[in-house]
Input
Amino acid sequence: MIIGMALVTYIPRMLPVTLLSKVKIPDLLVRILKFVGPAILASLLAPALFITEGAIDISLSNSYLLASIPTFFTAYFSKSIFTTVFLGMLYLYIFTLI
Output
């Protein structure tokens, strides 16, 4: 059973790599695919930042939105995931207390 679960997990990841390694992907498709990651990240973050209690909340009482501002600058300047996550949680804690 464990081997079966490993195969079910491994095969969908291995097949595209092996099949597409010999195929030349058009430049247009490569440029389009570069936007997929940021688009998914934005679609996951936007509701968490802007929606509070089922309604859009763009105010100074939204601690998630306030904490995201210094967290963005921390990520931009530090380029460290650990520092960004740690300070992001600290910023959220501080803005929740205020």
